[in-house]
Amino acid sequence: MTQLNLPDTLHTILIVSAADQAALAQLLARLEFGVQVVNRGDAALAAIADNGVAMVLLDVALAGSARLELLPRLVHAAPGCQLPVLVLSAAPSEEERERALEAGAAGYLRLPCAPEEIVEKIQIELTVRHAWPEVPRATTLDMKTLEVNYHTLLAGSPDAILLFDAARGTPVDVNRNAERLFGRSSGELMRLRMTDLCPPAQPDGTPSREAIDTLLHKVLGGEVRVFPMTFQHSSGRAVDCEIRLVMLDKDDMRLLHMRLVDVTGQRLAEALRAGQNALLEMVARGAPLTETLNKLLVLMEAQAPGVVCTIQLLDEDGKTVRSGAAPSLPPAYLQALDGIPIGPRVGSCGTAMFLRESVIAADIARDPLWENYRELALRHGLRACWAMPILGDASTVLGSFAIYYRDPRQPRTEDERLIRVAVHLAGIAIERTRREAELARHRDHLEELVMARTAELRRAKEQAEQASASLAAALDNLRLTQDELVRRDKLAALGALVAGVAHELNTPIGNSLTVASTMSEHLATLRSRLHAGLRRTDLEQYLETAGEADGVIVRNLTRAGRLIASFKQVAIDTASSQRRRFRLDEFIAELVLPLLAATPQPRPTVRQEIAPDLVMDSYPGPLGQALSALFENAVVHGLAGRADGTVTIAARALDDGIVALSVGDDGAGIAPEHVDKVYDPFFTTRPGAGAAGLGLHVTHNIVTGVLGGRIALYSTPGLGTTFTLTLPAIAPP
Fold first, then answer.
1. Which Pfam families match (predicted)?
2. pTM for the full model?
3. Residue 650: helix, strand or coil by DSSP?
4. Is pLDDT at 526 greater than 80 in this prediction?
5. SS (H, E, C) 63-116
6. How far apart, in whole angstroms, are the C-alpha atoms of residue 573 and residue 565?
């Protein structure tokens, strides 16, 4: 970079941006530019009004709305001249660039951009506007004077630059970048007019001569801006450029400064993106595969002029090549390859599909892979080929994409990029088509499948109805059988209960009846002796016998009365049971005292482990009866004959309003063979010691009936027995 000799009053670069521009400001300062940075439009206008601003760098984010209102105000803010404004955009677009240039911008820079590149653009712009040297008036230009100032700057420019003599229409100076852009030497370029550097017509069909005349007319009219133009390389290749033309008047000569930026790659990239979007849209709407593949290949060939592209498909059998697409080759070429099997020596495409990897044939005329297909390829002018398989997944080959050349050569880096894009898009299109074909097959057979399924469902329905009828009949039979079994169980239970009652009452009643019969005989004997004369000894003997008989009868009838009272407990009288709320700890404490008092010596130790604040809404009468029976069972059966036994009554709250109440002892326990029988009526292991084997039976009925709970037994022989009642805190109604 060189220091410029600007007028003393024009040394300030005004930066209008909210972003950090410290690096750019430092670089400008080293070149002895003044730098002023503002972040508002009004501040920018005020700075220009103070004079001394040579150029403005405007961040498009501060230029106003989409119409960029601040930009033309900045251009015309300096009195008597148009101020050059370079627009900086962090989100560049072609539409925005056009709006900026129409609004009067001297240039449009895409960010991010190195500070050195921005400074170089500033130097070129300011050189063209202010740094043209004074030379003697003449009809020809002094090139030595030009070399000292302008030519040095032109040679170091990163862009292609040509300086035209407007009168003659030929260049008077070019730089090396221009030589490279057109593929011509400076001597050749100096002899050619601008129209000689263009193809006959522009891409929109406008003749190049007409397009150049229009462009020059605008420049001569004072319009300075960037214009698109397509030129032609010496090889015939089209070169898309953005050109900036500035008309300079010097010593009665009109010079045209033309700066060209090659945007071919950018245009190709934009065309590729647009083409990709169009192809994906075609795939999405289900366009025919051949149409999609042809459009894809045309797009790829436009990206690399001179190449010919083809796509071959692999049959669903995974072995046979099928015709795909080759819009730039005669249909006969694809037809000749249709139906051949893939393999390790079947040209580039067949081999690529077989090996599932890229295959390069730099010279078809000599490559052994093309031995059987060489004549076919050479007949169509194909001399080199690079093929890549199109994969659906790691194990599925859909086809192959190939780039052909008409001369022996290796593929270029650009070709590698294009092939990857083409393979990706082709894979999407082919796989979509295959899936649609599969769906079509399903649709074709859908009616048949529905009819078959309907018939199957109809048969299943009939079978279900038959099975339902059979099940209904079986259920009716089961219900009758169940009712009969319940009736029999009730009768059996009633028979067992009656037999138990009869057995238990038979002994006291039989004893009483025997004694009464004996006393009847003694009474008859006494009466017969009364007429003959009753002796005192006979009367005393009778009275003694009568007294003994009376005692036997009273004892047996008393026992019968107790048995009848215990039998009455089997049928729980819930109607006479009073329901109320009570604290469980208080209720247990009141219950234990009479139970201990009625227990003969030796009495066990009673431990009460009742959680406090347990409140129940239940039937205290039946609950007390059940606990009394469990206490009596522990004393009579578990702790019989022991003076150091312990009975533990415990209670605690469970989840969902449930109370666990247990009565346990540390006595003899229950034998395993008796565990399943303890709740049976009249089952007892100590006849005569309890209430005829009804205590646990009555307890079970109370717990599961009136109290609405469950009872569980845990017993270990020699270690004791525990009965646990799981009761709702609020008993069922």
1. GAF_2, HATPase_c, PAS_9, Response_reg
2. 0.40
3. strand
4. no
5. CCCCCCCHHHHHHCCCCCCCCCEEEEECCCCHHHHHHHHHCCCCEEEECCCCHH
6. 13
